[in-house]
Each structure stands twice: as structure tokens, then as C-alpha cells.
Design a protein that fits this description.
Growth Hormone, Chain: A; mainly alpha; 415 residues; transmembrane transporter activity; single chain; transmembrane helix
């Protein structure tokens, strides 16, 4: 790191991710259960889907704001919207009103979009050779909050009951406090526009998110990066979101459910520096292969697990590890898009698709769980890996031959 401004900005990203992780994870462990308490198991995935769709809705506007005014106002706004969402969720639970609860869950998703965009802010502070490492360090910080969050479920339940609310609404009080603190950390510590980021801005006018996706569709490596991130998130959300419901139906309490989700989130973030270093040293394509294979192993183990708590725990840890390797490698590939005119809009568009894919997966997961069980759900989710792997094979071949499609001055992805 160079200069106090860069160091202070990096501290801000670390602190906001710790706090944001607490906020997201406090709610994610009980969100599906809260929806079920007001409806039925068939609607369990809808609550998670709304949060993920909310993240998608916020991803492009936040990226646009970051391109125009810098990461600081974009990240602060994201945490502010998530704070409002947590308050509305508590209100919906207090009223026993499902539509109000759904509105709160939609806004709550802004926290996930904001936490994810901090990795791109970290890449703007880092040099080209260390993007994976810096991104992964910021993501790793989420481990602290994300592991602590679900383990607050029992205490949150007691808090909710103590103030006369449903127990499942209690954990969202922790989310309120965490998002407020995360926004404060960003506003107080993050530089308005880090010097490293300013040097990466080109004179070209930014393009729209849709145009950026169209550009990526013509470039095999960028296309694979987008597909990898979207598929990895969809597989992860589909299996993870229904695990609390499956365990709850098996008679396990909030303490056990919180522990399982904590271990899953530990897998998502704890080894991210390892995957970041691997992406920097061995290349993001090899790291992507590790991610896809690990996701496949997780889906297979979940399919075979049935009611074995130990097998489900191992499957959820592998699921987190596969997600981590895939998201970091895909993000490094996106950060290597040369032109800022394409890079930032494509990052926002990819995060939006990531959230929409995860939302669709969560919404479908509840129906699949009710229809074919937890094992069947894992099998369907694992099948999504196949097309992503095929695009990876095409992308890897394209990196070995000179590109003939790029015209002079056209943005491209570094190989």
C-alpha cells in the first residue's frame, strides 16, 4: 500500500465488510424460516429470492454511481438501503404481513450487492499483479461478520421475544446496527476517489450495462467470467437457502442451523486469500477450474447426504469453498478488462446477473425441495455447472490463439 489515503481506504473496506457480513448473515440464517412461519414451505425460497433480486436491482445503479462519483457514495447508499430493508422486515414480522415482509427482504438485498462491490473497490487500490490478493483480502474480512452473524440467531430470537416480536424477527436488529456502522465506516474513512482508481479511468465515456454484456458475449474470456460468477452464485444460493428449511424439517433447532450456515460462510470467505494468491500466481483460469470442481463435489455430497447432519455440513463447507474460488477468479478476469468504459459497467451488470441467477435459483429451490427433496434439489443445482464448464473450455482455447475479433482501440481482456 502507498500513502495514508490508500491505507485508510483499505481499512474502510475491511471494516465495512466485517460489519456488512454481520448484517447479512444475521438475517440470512432465519429469513427462509420467517417466511415459512407466515406462509408455507413452498414459499420458503421466495424470501431468499427477493433478497437476491434486491441485490441485482441495486448492482447496476451502484456501479453507475461509482463510475460517476466514486465508490464512497455508492457503498454508503447501498448500506443505507439495506438498513431500511431490515427495519421493514421487522415491521412486517410484527404485523404478520407477508407483503411488507417481502418488501423489506427486497431492500435488504442491497447489503449483498454493496459487500460484493467492495471487491472491485479493492482492485482499484491494488496494482495489476496483486488484484486477486487484494480482492480476496477484502472478501476474507467478511468471514468475521458472516460467521458471527448466524450464531447470533439464538440471541436475536431472545431479543425479539423480549420486545414482544416474533423470535425470528429478532436477528434483524443486529442487521440494523451493523449496516448503520458499515455506512459510517465508508463515509468516514474511504477516500472520495482513490488515487489508484483515478489512474485507471479512461477518456472514453462509460457504456450501458446492457452494452457491456453485449461486448462480453463477443469475447470468450469475459463471457466465461460472467457465466462463472452467475452459475457459481446460483448453485450456492439454491442449495444453501434450503438447507435451514431441510434441517428445520428434520427437527434441528436454530442453534444447529446457525452453526451449519456459519461453517458454510466460513468456507465462502476464510480461504479467499488462498484463492486470490492462486489467481495471481497460477492464473484465474486454473483457479476457476478449482472452483467448478469443488462446486460439483458439494452438489454430489448434498445429493447423497439425505438426513446426515455431518454430510450436510461437509457439503455446505465445500459449497462455500467452490463459490469463493469461482467468484474470485471470475472477478479477477473482469478486473482485467482494460477500458474503464467497459470495466465498471460490466462489473455492475455481472453482479446484477449474479443476483438474478441466485434469486431465480432460490425461488425455484423451495418448489424443488417440496417436490423432489433436498437431494433432488442438489442434483438440479449441480447440473448448472456443466454449461459454465463448457464456456470455460472455449475461453481457455481462445487464450492460446491470437484474437481476430478486436479492432484497434477496442477494450479487451488481458490474458
Amino acid at each position: 500500500m502507498s500513502g495514508p489515503s490508500t491505507r485508510r481506504s483499505f481499512v474502510a473496506l475491511i471494516a465495512s465488510n466485517v460489519l456488512g457480513g454481520v448484517g447479512v448473515a444475521s438475517g440470512i440464517a432465519v429469513g427462509s424460516l420467517l417466511v415459512v412461519s407466515l406462509s408455507s414451505v413452498a414459499f420458503a425460497g421466495l424470501g431468499q429470492a427477493l433478497s437476491v433480486f434486491g441485490a441485482g436491482l441495486m448492482a447496476v445503479p451502484l456501479a453507475g454511481l461509482a463510475a460517476r462519483r466514486g465508490r464512497r457514495p455508492a457503498l454508503a447508499l447501498g448500506y443505507g438501503v439495506a438498513l431500511l430493508g431490515a427495519a421493514v422486515i421487522i415491521l412486517g414480522a410484527a404485523l404478520g404481513c407477508l407483503p411488507v415482509l417481502f418488501a423489506g427482504l427486497l431492500a435488504f438485498g442491497a447489503a449483498q450487492a454493496t459487500n460484493l462491490q467492495t471487491r472491485y473497490a479493492a482492485s482499484e487500490l491494488a496494482g495489476t499483479e496483486r488484484r486477486g490478493t487484494w480482492m480476496s483480502m477484502v472478501l476474507w474480512a467478511t468471514t468475521i461478520g458472516s460467521v458471527a452473524g448466524p450464531n447470533l440467531s439464538a440471541a436475536g430470537g431472545q431479543l425479539g421475544s423480549a420486545v414482544g416480536l416474533p423470535a425470528l424477527a429478532g436477528p434483524y436488529f443486529f442487521s440494523l446496527a451493523a449496516f448503520a456502522a458499515a455506512a459510517a465506516a465508508v463515509l468516514l474513512l474511504l477516500a472520495r476517489r482513490p488515487a489508484a482508481a483515478a489512474t485507471q479511468v479512461t477518456s472514453a465515456a462509460p457504456i450501458s450495462a446492457l452494452a457491456a454484456l453485449g461486448w462480453s458475449a463477443r469475447h470468450p474470456v469475459a463471457r466465461f467470467a460472467v457465466a462463472l460468477i452467475v452459475v457459481a452464485h446460483a448453485v450456492m444460493v439454491g442449495i444453501m437457502s434450503m438447507t435451514p428449511v431441510h434441517l428445520g424439517n428434520g427437527g434441528h433447532g436454530l442453534g444447529v442451523i446457525g452453526l451449519v450456515i456459519s461453517l458454510h460462510i466460513l468456507g465462502m470467505y476464510a480461504l479467499s486469500p488462498v484463492f486470490g494468491a492462486l489467481a495471481d500466481r497460477s492464473g484465474p483460469m486454473r483457479t476457476a477450474l478449482v472452483g467448478l470442481v469443488t462446486l460439483g463435489a458439494s452438489a454430489a455430497l448434498a445429493f447423497l447426504a439425505r438426513d446426515s447432519l455431518l454430510a450436510i455440513i461437509f457439503a455446505l463447507v465445500l459449497l462455500g469453498l467452490g463459490w469463493s474460488a469461482s467468484i474470485i477468479s471470475g472477478s479477477v478476469l473482469l478486473a482485467d478488462v482494460d477500458s474503464g468504459a467497459v470495466r465498471v459497467p460490466l462489473q455492475g451488470a455481472t453482479d446484477a446477473l449474479m443476483s438474478y441467477g441466485g434469486g431465480a435459483s432460490a425461488m425455484t429451490a423451495g418448489v424443488l425441495l417440496a417436490a423432489i427433496g433436498y437431494g433432488g434439489l442438489a442434483l438440479v443445482a449441480g447440473a448448472l455447472i456443466i454449461p459454465a464448464a463448457a464456456l470455460g473450455w472455449v475461453a481457455n482455447r481462445s487464450r492460446r490463439v491470437p484474437s481476430r475479433g478486436a479492432s484497434a482501440g477496442e477494450p479487451h481482456v488481458k490474458s
